[in-house]
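Page 37, continued from 36.
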């Protein structure tokens, strides 16, 4: 890669009538690079400028998609950030192709420029978007597992979640939640009958992420309870009929 100063100087020498070979030898740059610059004088940006890297940082233009993708990231996503490798990855169960499509669409809507790929492994499909700017958009990124470090939203992120709370809840449930049908029995007229009812679960080891989930449910008027299993308070349950109906209307089962 050559900087803009080198590019401009080479093009200026060619404009003076110098041959490509002489400019290439004098500046110790490839002749092919000069040829490319002549056909396309302005450099092509591989990705649009990052809204968070600007002198006056802004928020993503598609805030609805960002709120959903934030939920996916906090659940089943992580960022690889190495000197020569940067990407956001969300792991989706292979039996839910609709979720895979939705995750890929959300990445494109939040950052249209970077390439997005899918890679398959046993029972899973990983959706990856390649750019270093995901660390700007998800400042929760850091070394170690999420439940081993503090997870909190920055004010600009909280503003997006407040504006699009259902998308945030939908992303969290699509990553670490499910809709199931529970059943029990009861006596009706002396006869024991089976009774079924739908229920949502959200399971995450991070106390902070569960708190973000339940705080948002509170603002939406969704009733929830802790569901402790084997002494671990990692499960949030939504079982009341009116609250389940709200989640059905805005989230629904995975597909």
């Amino acid at each position: 890669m050559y900087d803009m100063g080198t590019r401009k100087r080479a093009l200026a020498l060619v404009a003076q009538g110098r041959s490509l070979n002489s400019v290439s030898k004098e500046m110790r740059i490839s002749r092919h690079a000069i040829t490319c610059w002549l056909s396309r004088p302005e450099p092509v940006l591989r990705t649009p400028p990052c809204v968070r890297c600007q002198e006056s940082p802004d928020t993503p233009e598609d805030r609805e998609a960002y709120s959903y993708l934030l939920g996916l990231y906090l659940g089943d996503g992580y960022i690889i950030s190495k000197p020569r490798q940067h990407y956001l990855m969300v792991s989706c169960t292979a039996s839910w192709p609709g979720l895979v499509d939705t995750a890929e669409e959300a990445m494109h809507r939040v950052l249209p420029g970077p390439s997005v790929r899918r890679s398959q492994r046993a029972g899973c499909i990983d959706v990856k978007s390649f750019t270093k700017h995901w660390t700007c958009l998800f400042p929760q990124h850091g070394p170690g597992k999420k439940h081993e470090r503090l997870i909190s939203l920055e004010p600009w992120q909280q503003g997006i979640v407040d504006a699009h709370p259902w998308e945030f809840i939908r992303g969290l449930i699509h990553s670490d939640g499910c809709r199931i049908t529970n059943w029990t029995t009861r006596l009706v007229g002396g006869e024991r009958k089976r009774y079924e009812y739908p229920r949502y679960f959200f399971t995450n080891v991070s106390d902070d992420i569960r708190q973000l989930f339940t705080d948002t449910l509170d603002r939406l008027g969704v009733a929830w309870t802790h569901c402790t299993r084997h002494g671990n308070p990692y499960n949030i349950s939504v079982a009341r009929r009116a609250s389940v109906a709200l989640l059905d209307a805005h989230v629904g089962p995975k597909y």
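The longest strand covers residues 191-203. Flag for discussion at group meeting. The mean pLDDT is 90.
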